[in-house]
Amino acid sequence: MQNSFGHKICKIKDLFHDDRVDVSIRQILIRVFHYLGISSDKSDEIIDECINIAKNYDTLESYERSAHEILKKEGVVEELPKKLDKRAHIIFNQIKPYLLDGSILDLGCGDGRVGQLVADFGHHVVLAGICENENIENIKLPFKIFKKNQPLPYGDNEFINTLVLTVLHHSDDPLFLLKEIHRVTKDGGRVLVRESVYGVTKDNLSKVESVRGKYYLDLTAEQQKMVNIFFDHFYSTIILYSEDPEKKIKLPFNFNTPGGWKTFFEANGFDQEKVDYLGVDQPTVPEYHTLHVLRVIK
Predict the structure, then answer these.
(1) Environment class of residue 181 by beta-carbon count within 10 Å: exposed (0-12), middle (13-18) or buried (19+)?
(2) Domain shared by 41 and 116, yes or no
(3) Bridge partners of 272?
(4) What is the chain's alpha carbon radius of gyration, rounded to the nearest angstrom?
(5) Smaller CB count within 10 Å for the chain: N or C?
(6) Are 165 and 224 in contact (CB under 8 A)?
(7) Is the pLDDT of residue 198 over 90?
(8) Beta strands in 82-234 (DSSP E)
C-alpha cells in the first residue's frame, strides 16, 4: 500500500515487527497516559493489552473496537478531550505571529477551539470541516461543511489567510485540496500549514525539545513514519471510534518529510517563506510537527 506521495504504508499489525518502533510507541504512550493522570502500573497494563490486540487482530475493525473499549473503561477516551483546550492555546501561539490583517479561513477546523482563539484575538474567522464536531455548537463562528474532493464552498480570492492545521495528511487528494486552498486565498495572502512529519532530527530543536522527543528522534525516517501511522490511527479511529461506517475517519496516511512538503508547496503556486520546527510539542498528540508559512503566488 502507498500514499499519495508514493510512500509505503504498513498495516497496523506489521508496525510491531520492528522492535524499535514497538518500544518507541510504548514509551510515547506511557508519557501520554501519565499526562492524563494514569499510574505507571496501570499505563503498562493498558498499553500491553492494546498492543497485544494490535499485533494479533483478525480484522482492523475488531482491533479498533476492542482497543476503544479498553481505553473507554480506563477513562482515557473521556480524559483526552478535556486536555484539548491547552492544545488549542499551543497551536494559537505558534500561528499568531504569522497572521495577516484580514479574513481567515480555518479549513478542517476540528473542534473550532483554535479558530475561536484567533477570533478572540481580533480577526474575522470562518470555519470549515468535513463534518460538524460536537463542540462546534459552542463556537460562535460561521461554519460550513465541505465534501472531500469537491470544490470548497467559497469564492475565488475570498481570504487573506487560510489555516490548514494537520489537515493535508488526512486528505484523500492533497493536491486537489491544495489547489482549492490556492484558489480561495488572495494573491500575496498567507497559508499556514501545520503538519505531522517524519524524517526529522534534533538539529533544529532546543535541548528540552530534543529530550522530549528522544524516543521518536532516535528512529530512522522510515521508523518515524511507522510511528506516525500508529498514532494517526490510534487517535482517529480508536479514541474517536464509531460503529457507523459513515462516521469513521478514513486515513490515507499522506505523511511527508519537511523537505517533501516544501517541494510540494512550491510546485503548486506557493512560496515557503519559513518553516518552524515545532518538535513533539503537545503531550496529548505526541507527533513531531512543523509549521510551514506560505505566501500565495498567482
Answers:
(1) buried
(2) no
(3) 294
(4) 19
(5) N
(6) no
(7) yes
(8) 104-107, 125-129, 143-145, 159-165, 185-196
Query: Please, which pLDDT band fits residue 166 given cuts at 50, 70 and 90?
Result: very high
Confirm whether 277 is domain-assigned: yes
Please choose, from the candidates 163, 149, 159, the residue with its C-alpha nearest in 3D space to the C-alpha of residue 250: 149
* Cα–Cα dist 114/125, whole Å: 10
Which pLDDT belongs to residue 85? 74
* pLDDT higher than 90, residue 112: yes
Binned at pLDDT 50, 70 and 90, residue 221 comes out as: very high
| Residue 289 shares a structural domain with residue 150 | yes
Tens digit of each residue's pLDDT (9 = 90 or more) over 56-104: 999 999 999 999 999 999 999 998 877 777 889 999 999 999 999 999 9
The widest CA-to-CA distance across the chain, in whole angstroms, is 56
Residue owning grid cell 518507541:
24
Note whether 276 and 291 are within 8 A (CB).
Answer: yes
Residue type, 23: V
Count the domains in the chain.
Answer: 2
231 and 180: one domain? no
Q: Which of 166, 167, 191, 133 is nearest to 278 (CA)?
A: 166
Q: What is the pLDDT of residue 245?
A: 79
Run of H or E residues at 10? none
246-272 average pLDDT score: 94
> Do 262 and 150 fall within a single domain?
yes
- Identify the domain containing residue 103 by its residue range: 88-197+256-296
Among 133-147, 237-251, 270-284, the minimum mean pLDDT is found in 237-251
Please give the Cα distance from 258 to 263 (Å, whole number): 9
One domain, residues 129 and 22: no
Per the prediction, the chain carries an average pLDDT of 94
Amino acid at 58: D
Could you tell me if 136 and 270 lie in one domain?
A: yes
Give the alpha-carbon dihedral of 66, 52, 49, 39, to 10 degrees: -130
Looking at the structure, do residues 129 and 264 belong to the same domain, yes or no?
yes
